Structures are given as C-alpha cells and as structure tokens.
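Q: Two folds, back to back.
A: First:
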Amino acid sequence: MSKVKKSVKSKSKKNELIKRVTTAIILLVVVILLILPASYVNFGSQAQTNLDNYNNTFIKYDYFFISIIGLLLAYIIFEIVNFTSPFKDDKTIFWVNLIFLEIIFIIIYVFIAYYFIRDYNPIWAKPNDQIQDFGYNNQINNLLIYLISFSFIYLLINVGFDNEIKDSIINLTVSVLAFAFVLSILFLTIVFGFTVILMLILTTAFVDTFAYFGGKLFGNQKIFVNASPNKTFNGFLIGLLAGFLFFIFFYFTFVANMESSNLYWLNDENFLQIDSNTAYLISNLNLKISALMIVVIIISPFADAFFSKIKRNFNKKDFANILPGHGGVLDRLDSHIFTYTIFSFGLLFIVFI
C-alpha cells in the first residue's frame, strides 16, 4: 500500500512539474511577443529613422502596451485584496479595499504613462546637454504626492474595520510594489529596449530555477525557515552563481556588444558627444551595471521569501490559481517585482543622474 501511495505521489509531483514548466514556457513566449514591438531597435546611427518609424508606426502599439501593463497592475491589486480579504463576513471590506486601491493606482498610472509618451524621445537617453527632465517635472512629482496622501487616507479608512489594519498594510505595500514594477517595465522596455528587459526576465528565472533544483539536489540546511521552508542555503548559493554567470554571458553577448541594444550606444563616445565634463557618466558603465546586477541577483531570493512570508501568515500556498502549476500572478512575479524595480532605479541613477 505504501509503495502505491509513493508511486501516486511521485507521479503527481512529476505532472505538477510538467504543468509548471509548460506554463512558464507559454508565459515567456507571450511576454516576448508583447514586449518586442514596444522596444526600440536602437537609437544609434539610425536614430532619426527610428524616430520617424516610431512616430508613424509604433506610437499606437505603445498605447496598447501601456494598456496591457495597466491591466496587469489592476489584476495584481485585485489578487492581493482578494487574497487578504476574500469576501469575509462583511463584503464592504473587500469592495472598499479593491475600489479605493484600483482608483488610486490606475489613475496615477494613466497620468504618468501619458506624460511618458508625451515627453519621451529616444534622444533624451543621452547623458549630455540634450538630456530632458522627464521623471522630475512638477506634474509627476505632484502625482506622487497624491499617491502618498491617498495611501494615508486608505489606511485611515481601514482603521474603522476590526482587525483589518494588517491586511490593509499588506494590500497597500504590494500595490505600491506592483505600481513601481509596472513603471519599471514601461521605462526599461521603451527606453532601453528588448534585450535589457529580456536579460532581467531570464536572469531572475535562472536564479529561481537553479535555487529550486539546487536545493532539491544538494540542500539540507534551511535558510528562510519562517518564510519559505523549502529554500536551502546551498540552493541559495547555486541560484546566485547561476544567475550571475547567465547575466555575464547574456549582457556581454546581447546587450553591451550589439548595436540592437540601446545600452551599446551608451559606450559610444562619438555618438554621445562626450566631453571632459560628462565623461564620468559612462565611465566604467559595464562595471557599474554588473555591480548593480549583483545586488539585483542577491535580492531576488529575499523577494521570493517576502511574498512567501505573506502567504504563510494566511496559511495559504498560493495567492490564486489562475496559472496552472504556479498559482497566481503574484506567485509567478514575486521575485521579478523587486528585481525590475531595483534595476530600473539603479540604471536611472547610473545613466541619467
């Protein structure tokens, strides 16, 4: 009888793994097909041609792309609210949380996306005198002030619900992270192009995958006992090493040394018209980006553990069951939400500030 049970359990695990891998491959293909048309080919020697093509051809797709990313944000907010307060005794709790958060973040996202498309020009992605002030104008600063103010109001409203303040803080925290995440996708895809966002997708996936299988094969010492008991120290190290090696290969093969990558042109002093006053902006650019990616890769497992801790607090395995073998969208994006946001802000600081 025990052998039969073990056989059934083994077969179930195998089927679950197949389902998980199949879903991941389908998602990767869909993401590539979505992101690729929204990315510039480059802004190097053919920059003006690309600008003309962009204005005539890609502007409509950019609006479509922004809409899809906005829908992703809306769904993530729904998923976390549904997870923390899934139609409890008082349905008012659920609807107040959902509607308030959706209104706050979607409206602010729409305005920021509008300013981005209105003000964006690939030429501003040059660290010289032609650089624009996108991201630091008064309109966007005001929107961020509104975001902070409405977030505070949201927490005050939830004080009126018994025992709901912890849930509301989780809802707000994840919504803010999701908001930063979708803006990072928008920024990295349209400004830096397909190869950069694909590098982040695959590097984060390599860290997660090798940490999982490395822990299964060689791990025994737990690393996140209270948050994610299945994570092991050996798996953690194997994931970090695999992610860094993949990053080195992909970055120096497809990003830093190919004209189809926008970061390639940030190493071209002739294109950038660099002088002695602005040379520091791109000096050791590859080294700076490599250091940034080391930080991103190290943070990736902790991001996974952060979301795992939320699930354990509610005694649940997944945030939802929309993705076969993975659970919810947050279960699939947990590490990505942190890595994209940290990388985009780091890259913004390295290149433009």
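A: Second:
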Amino acid sequence: MGVDRANLLVYVAAMPTPELRPDEDGQKPHDAAGWYDRGRRSERDGDLDAAREAYGRALARDQDQPHWHYRLGCVHLKAGDPTQATICFSAALRAEPHNGTYLTNLGAALDRLGRSDEAIRMYRKAILHETATAATYHNLGALFAEAGQTDEAIRTFAAAIELTPDAEGYQNLGLVHFTSGDFGRAQACFEKAIACDADFGIGHYYAGLCAMKSGRYDEALKRFERALQLNPQFARVHHNTGVCLHKLERYEQALGALQRALEAYPEDGRAHYQLALTYDALGLTQEARHHYGQSRARQQSSDGPSVKR
C-alpha cells in the first residue's frame, strides 16, 4: 500500500535571487530589469497578479533571461496554474537544460497536472546531472511512496536528508516506515524530526502514534498532549488520545476525548465505534448501541499517514 500524499510534505525548489534595486515611487520602470525587480517585490508581498504582470512586461522586453521565466513559472505555480508554470519552466530550461532548480519545479508542475511519469523524468535528470536539490529528492520520494515503492522511497528521502537534514525530511522518511509497519524505525525518524525542531507538532503526533501502535499508551498520551499544545486545532489527536485512555481503562477520560473528536469529525465512523466501546465499558448500553449504529451508517475515515508534499 502506498503512502497518502496528503500527509507528505512537498517542496518547491528555491534558488538565490539578486538583490533588488530601489524602486521609484509611483513611477513605471524604465527597462526590463526594472520590471523584473517590480515583479520580485510584488511576489515577495504576495501580490501574484501584479507579479505576473511585471514579469510578463520584463520578458516582453528581454526574452533571454531564463531566471525571469523561472520566476514567472513560480508565480503561476503559487497561483494554482501548473499549465502556465510548465510553459515558463520549460522556457527557462531551454537556456539552462541541466539547472536542477528549474527541473525540480517543472517536475512539481507536471506532477500537479497528473503527469507523474514526466515529473519523475525531470527529477531523475537533475540527479543524473548532479544538480538535484533536497527538494528534488523529496518530491521524487513522495511519488515513490505514493506508488508503494517503499525501498525506493526510503533511499530517496535518505538522499534528501543527506543534503538538508531537517524536520520535514525526517518526517517524510518516518511516514514511509510507519506505513510499512516498521514503527521502531518510524519513531526514530520522528524523534530526529523533533530534534531538528522541538516545536514540530506533527512529529510529536506521529511519535505518539508509533508509541500507541507499540502498546506504550502512557508515552503516547504525553506525545499527543504535546502535539495539542503546539497546535490546538489538531483535532485528530483527540481520537487517538481517547483510544489510549480506553486501553488504560480510564474510561471517563476516554469519553471526553472521544466526544471532542466527534465534535470535530461528526461523520467519522471510527470515532462513533470507539465511543460505543467506551460506553459499553462504562455499562451504558443504550448509548453504546446508538454509536454502534452510527458507526455502521458512516464510511470510516482513514487515519493513515501520508508523505508531505
């Protein structure tokens, strides 16, 4: 079974950009470089429409600037237009065909268009020419993970971490181990993610899941508590907290946690089922019967991990 990419961390490759020149307040730029600088400012400020217009004006005056095509492609990708992004990244690559950043972002755009085989070719081309970035390996690893190619995903994420050891990289590698049922290796990765960033809430959550899957319920509860401290909106934690409390026969506390989980996910059949078990343990048969019925009436949602893309 492949890893659900909704949980994987996906990357867009970044590259250094020249220092911006001072803008002339209220004045239109006089040349292509001025329009490019205006585009960079607009992109930095989150005004994607203005950035797109400025980069377009710059390129209308000077087409022979691969980095400008690249930046326009990045704006299109941020704006949710991978088709136009693909055109721009391809234009940049015509001038610099082995540029790893351009290849990686073209791969990301192609992947968003559902053209995963072409995306893989772009990532492998960057690796072949030794211009790959950590983002190249992360995105390629995510495709392998989703396809259930566990060994390839592990090797690829490990290569990303070797280039840039960060919390997100260890998280992705841990998710592959978790999905394959290797909770020991998975937890080791999540611990390294937390070592990189002590406030990495999702790392605490998955470390808690590993402890729960291994029967270490007290340890899991501490991890889930920390994950909620870091992200109070992380409602999925309540369900797993309730499961651990039930396993520890702390049924009243389990009931409270599971009710909070159901408030966040009222259509989650698993939450209803776990509530039914807990009500049963408390001898509340009518309530248990109600939630057993609700669990059967709903399609159970998945709690499995996915690699962050």
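Q: And?
A: The radius of gyration is 24 Å.
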